[in-house]
Amino acid sequence: MKEKILNLIEKIRPYLNMDGGDIEFIKYEDGYIYIKLIGACSSCMYQDNTINDSLLDFFKNEIPEIKGIINVSI
């Protein structure tokens, strides 16, 4: 599962990079993908929309068993 998630992250990374942001994979556990938004994305007031609307839809289309995405700050 981790490899599949990492491959999908590589597909979406250029779109986040265009806005000065990036994404880091933390772990996959119990149907949830744990990520860390970095760069401009880490302080963007629309990060919840990005996660819940764009990223979650993208991942669920490819991996239907995904329950959610959790942004962690480390």
Which topology does CATH recognise?
A: GMP Synthetase, Chain A, domain 3
> How far is it from the N-terminal to the C-terminal residue, by CA?
23 Å
Shape: globular
Quaternary structure type: single chain
Any idea what the CATH architecture is?
2-Layer Sandwich
Number of domains: 1
Strand order, largest beta sheet: 1-2-3
What is the topological layout?
Layout lengths: L1 H17 L2 E9 L2 E8 L7 H16 L5 E4 L3
Parallel strand pairs: 2-3
Antiparallel strand pairs: 1-2
Describe the structure.
With 74 residues, the chain is an alpha+beta fold. It has one domain (2-71): Fe-S cluster assembly (FSCA) (GMP Synthetase, Chain A, domain 3, 2-Layer Sandwich). Helices cover 45% and strands 28% of the residues. It has helices at 2-18, 47-62, and strands spanning 21-29, 32-39, 68-71. The relative contact order is 0.21.
Task: Give a quick summary of the entry.
This protein has 2 helices and 3 strands, in the order αββαβ.
Defining traits:
single chain; 74 residues; alpha+beta; GMP Synthetase, Chain A, domain 3; three-stranded mixed β-sheet; 2 helices
